[in-house]
């Protein structure tokens, strides 16, 4: 299906809606927890910056970046939750709502993939730096 094509009409059954609702319940918890962790990490970063001044700038920037990732994951998961809810709660546009939910999930997993790749790069660089420093 191309992005401009109209999705076919399909209505999920009551049993299928139960499965979607179970997914929504789990995703709602993870979205709220991600937002809470993001807010908590941001508060920790601000507190560290206030208590340590300029010396706390590096860790505070790391905390800020981490909080942004958690908040984005939480927001995008909540948007996916809303779209999955529309699959269950409305009739006539289940496929459209499902595709919108999948689009939001794609954002979440693309961000997580990027974070994991960056973390792997940092780990490899740290191992390399440690190896070079231990030679000299």
TrEMBL record:
Say which domain of life the source belongs to: Bacteria
Question: What is the originating organism of this protein?
Answer: Nannocystis exedens
Transmembrane ranges, per UniProt, are: 29-50, 56-77, 115-133
Q: What is this protein called?
A: Uncharacterized protein
Q: Which UniProt keywords apply?
A: Membrane, Transmembrane, Transmembrane helix
| Record has Transmembrane helix as a keyword | yes
Carries keyword Transmembrane?
yes
């Amino acid at each position: 299906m191309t992005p401009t094509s109209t999705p076919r009409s399909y209505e999920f059954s009551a049993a299928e809606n139960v499965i979607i609702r179970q997914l929504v319940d789990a995703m709602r918890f993870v979205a709220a927890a991600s937002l809470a962790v993001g807010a908590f990490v941001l508060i920790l970063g601000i507190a560290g910056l206030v208590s340590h001044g300029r010396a706390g700038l590096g860790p505070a920037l790391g905390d800020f970046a981490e909080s942004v990732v958690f908040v984005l994951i939480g927001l995008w998961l909540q948007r996916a939750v809303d779209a999955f809810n529309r699959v269950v709660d409305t009739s006539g546009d289940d496929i459209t709502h499902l595709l919108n939910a999948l689009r939001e999930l794609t954002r979440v997993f693309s961000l997580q993939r990027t974070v994991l790749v960056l973390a792997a790069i940092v780990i490899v660089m740290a191992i390399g730096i440690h190896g070079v420093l231990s030679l000299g």
